[in-house]
Amino acid sequence: MALVYSCCFWFSLRLGGILIGIFSLFQGLLVLVFCCLGYGQSESIKDEITNWITDYNLIYAKNYLENIQADPEKYITLVISFTSIYMIVCVIFIYGAYTCNNILMVTYILLELLRLILISILVATFLLLIKQNTMDIGLLIGASVGGGFLLLGMFYIWVCAANLPIVINEIEHDEQAAIISKLEQLLEVNQRTVPRGLDNIPFTAQSEDIVNRNVFIVPRNRGVNGNKRVTNHSTITKPYNNFN
How far apart are the first and last CA of the chain? Predict the structure, then answer.
């Protein structure tokens, strides 16, 4: 059973799925542009990570940043590779939503769920870092509300995309049920209108009059006791006896 039947209370799930795929495609394109720009500035990235490690309390994120600082080009290359794959999957999802092909949409749904989990981890880490490095409650509340609404909107979009194959299956099931019901009705109508053949006439016993008439019928080619005989023309000859 689908959870939603429209996207953003305005678009159909099919059109909403196409728009969601385009929106995700632009997100991937934006990340790809930033990664390409940062690939040639590895030294600047190392210096910036060094400043973060020195100036802020990064708790458990410090180890991850140190690994990135050791070889930033390696991680940027990985991000570029995954983003390229993600963009290809987005294009496949757009085509699948346009043609209502569920198989083409499954990969995007799973990959987008993994991406949302990763974004949720990053948002939670960002909020923890704000809490550890500032005493501004207003900033923490604003960041929490903003991050919460961001995740809520992205998960809602994902739910809309994930429900599109479910709605397509429901529509196909309803159409098949309607076709089967229509065929059953046509079959019942045909059975009522088709005339009954000889094979369908019920067997009835012979009436008493027919049985009584059959008693007086003389069978052909059958011998008769005495001097009587039956000819081919069903005539009976009887010799005359002399009374002299």
Answer: 113
